[in-house]
Amino acid sequence: MLVEKPGFSAGGNARVFSRGPRARSWVLAGVAAVPVLLIALQVFAALRGFEGPLESLWHDYVSTPKSMSVPWAGLILAVVGISWRRRVLAVGAAVAIDLVWVAIRLSSGASFAVGNGPVIVLTVLGVVALVRWQGVERRDALHAVALGALLILATKVSDVWLHITVLAGPSVFDEYLMLADHALGDPSWVLGRVLDALGPGVYAVLHWVYIELPVAAIVVAVWQLRRVVSSRRWPSHYLVRTFLVLGLLGPVVYLIFPVVGPMFAFGPDGHGLQLGNYWPGVVAPIDHNPMPLAFDTETPRNCMPSMHTAWALSVFLHTRRDTDGTRAPRLLRWIGTFWLLATLAATLGFGYHYGVDLVAGAVLCLTVESALREPERGWGLFRVRLVGLGLGLLAALLLTYRYLAVWMAEYPVPFGTLVLAGLAAYAVAFHATWFAENRESVGARTEPEFSV
């Protein structure tokens, strides 16, 4: 039985609901599945001879962390569920531990790195909350610690998954996507030449934006969750949920549609297996008989769809409004817009993606957001229709890229118009459902649901 209580949501006057027995059983099943997954991936990685998630996590505790920003992002997310006094103590302890580790590394001649402190403190925080705290205080703390831990663990799983994409896709479909990209005007080649002309300064800024996307996400997530402790209520939907679901679903497509990107398949980083050194100076000629390209055992097949596009678009969407439906601060809206545009420029200008990858990533993001937003409105026809349209559009794009790529190259204007019109139409439907002023009429509220 669900117990109703007031809370925050994108609808303004909506409600969130505490977990009943069925919901708690699903949560417990999810918690139990995490260590099983990590152990399975660790065994697989050990058998294949590369670093597994548990090994990487161990390095975060006692050696050199793989990332300096992700552990801190995880801790910052975790402290949203505790009081200000405890936040200061937790962050201060993490800084102190990191300073000790930095001193040890530098004195031994090792390179500078941080990240041990936040991982250690996050773990201690979770143990203390579980053992010593009670009631709402413990629930909020464990909820936030779980989010921070999942953010860190997701990066560990992602590293292993990239190795799996190589093993599962010895051949890549880049030649098909290069042909399909003619319908969009070869944007990767265009942006690649533009960035070369703009010089190293612009490159450095875009590169930082590209690799530090989790930082932007954490800034937005902390803003969305800033009232959790004072109100003792969690929003029904917030950015972290979208990030995690995208990270779970998107990489599955890597196995179905393995792609390495233009700078590898058509550029200088192809380890001798590229079709030619075309990118970004010269667009490769149209091959009327494209075939899968056998590629190396090092480059991840992680282009289709563009997950950076999906994640950056989700940051943009969550900087439009607060969790109570009010307009977000102007500075935050500008940050979301800048991060989206800079990420799109980087993904194309660095040769990491084709334009058609970005379209697929955007459709995936809007589809996942349509499934997660305003859970209190239920799964009425409006949501089923919107999610179904997104899945259908994504499937249609993948089939078109694979089997009609030559036609897309020979008839770029009609095919390019169809691809962009499909994305635009879906974006309009998404906006009308979730952001338009009269969105209440799009889908009536149905039976209540609990927040996660």
Kindly list the characteristics that best describe this protein:
single chain, 452 residues, mainly alpha, two-stranded antiparallel sheet, 65% helix, disordered N terminus, disordered C terminus
As a percent range, the share of helical residues equals 55-70%
N/C terminus separation: 16 Å
By secondary-structure content and strand pairing, the structural class works out as mainly alpha
Number of DSSP E strands? 4
Shape: globular
Number of helices: 19
Q: Rg, please?
A: 23 Å
Low-confidence segments: 1-19, 440-452
Spatial strand order of the main sheet:
1-2
Give the strand content: under 5%
Order of helices and strands: EEHHHHHHEHHHHHHHEHHHHHH
Brief digest:
This protein is mainly alpha-helical. It has 19 helices and four strands.
Secondary structure: elements and pairs:
Layout: E1 4-6, E2 15-17, H1 21-48, H2 53-62, H3 70-78, H4 84-107, H5 116-132, H6 135-168, E3 171-172, H7 174-181, H8 187-198, H9 200-211, H10 213-224, H11 228-231, H12 239-256, H13 262-265, E4 293-294, H14 307-318, H15 330-349, H16 355-372, H17 381-403, H18 405-410, H19 412-434
Antiparallel strand pairs: 1-2, 3-4
Notes on the protein architecture:
By secondary structure, this protein is an all-alpha fold. It contains 19 helices and four strands. It has a two-stranded antiparallel sheet with strand order 1-2. Helix 2 (53-62) packs across helix 5 and helix 12 packs across helix 16. The radius of gyration is 23 Å and the shape is globular. The two termini are 16 Å apart. Residues 1-19 and 440-452 have low confidence and may be disordered.
